[in-house]
């Protein structure tokens, strides 16, 4: 996948690309809300979702029914055009989400945008030999902690660690600027990992925006809030265009500087004319006769 600028746009999935939480949507649509609410206080969210998928299978719900529930998820009409426009402008697009791979891949395929993303980071989700959807943690917290000190990260995934890994890989490719979009508390840690040249787009009046607003000085990146799909598109496009213009301006300045250096060297060579040394005149010696 070719990218003709230095911008990487990282999207959260739930309540950012889509307008709802995909886990809750599927559980509610298939009629298992009460059981989900009973189990939630007893185990981590990621573990509950795996248990719920087994329950769905035991109750006769098929993988196709889960996919069909996902395809009915509401999405703002300006989100897909915004994603396509960012890609068309040459940005590299990635997803970092605490949903799961099966839900995300089903949705981006349904929306016709799966080819636009270079990478999706989420909790593994796969259909096993019994035709049951299994969901496992991105980080296996049953063996060890992911080690993040921020209380806003769930035990199964620290998005900040994912962003650090992405930053390391991007550093090898040359200078890159990141634009990070999210809404939840789990998006706070990665926001703190962004650099001064990056941008963070928290969804206004959502948990990540509330956390950032408590002390904006902790975030090095430029903060650009958004409210819905329309404002996401407008602010994202404006931010991308701003970065591209800045990069073009920097390239022009470097080019002008290089040209001026070349001219100075040419002038210097022009005035440094080499002459053969002039031999001193022989002194006439007076001879007395």
| N-to-C span | 99 Å
Low-confidence stretches: 266-289
- The overall pLDDT average reads 90
Quaternary arrangement of the chains shown?
single chain
Q: Largest sheet, order of strands side by side?
A: 3-2-1-6-7-8
Structural class: alpha/beta
Number of strands: 8
Helical content (DSSP H or I, runs of 4+): 40-55%
List SSEs in N-to-C order. EHHHHHEHEEEHEHEHEH
Number of helices: 10
* Portion in beta strands: 5-15%
How is the biggest beta sheet arranged?
6 strands, parallel
Integer-rounded radius of gyration: 29 Å
* Coarse shape: globular
Question: Would you give an account of this structure?
Answer:
The protein is an alpha/beta fold. 45% of the residues lie in helices and 13% in strands. The protein contains 10 helices and 8 strands. It has helices spanning 22-29, 33-39, 45-58, 63-71, 79-88, 101-110, 159-173, 188-193, 207-214, 229-271, and strands at 7-11, 92-100, 117-123, 125-127, 133-135, 177-182, 199-202, 222-223. The protein has a 6-stranded parallel sheet with strand order 3-2-1-6-7-8, with helices on both faces.
What brief labels describe this structure?
alpha/beta, 289 residues, 10 helices, 8 strands, two-stranded antiparallel sheet, disordered C terminus
Short structural description:
The chain is of the alpha/beta class and 289 residues long. The chain has ten helices and eight strands.
What is the fold's blueprint, element by element?
Layout: E1 7-11, H1 22-29, H2 33-39, H3 45-58, H4 63-71, H5 79-88, E2 92-100, H6 101-110, E3 117-123, E4 125-127, E5 133-135, H7 159-173, E6 177-182, H8 188-193, E7 199-202, H9 207-214, E8 222-223, H10 229-271
Parallel strand pairs: 1-2, 1-6, 2-3, 6-7, 7-8
Antiparallel strand pairs: 4-5
Helix pairs in contact: 5-10
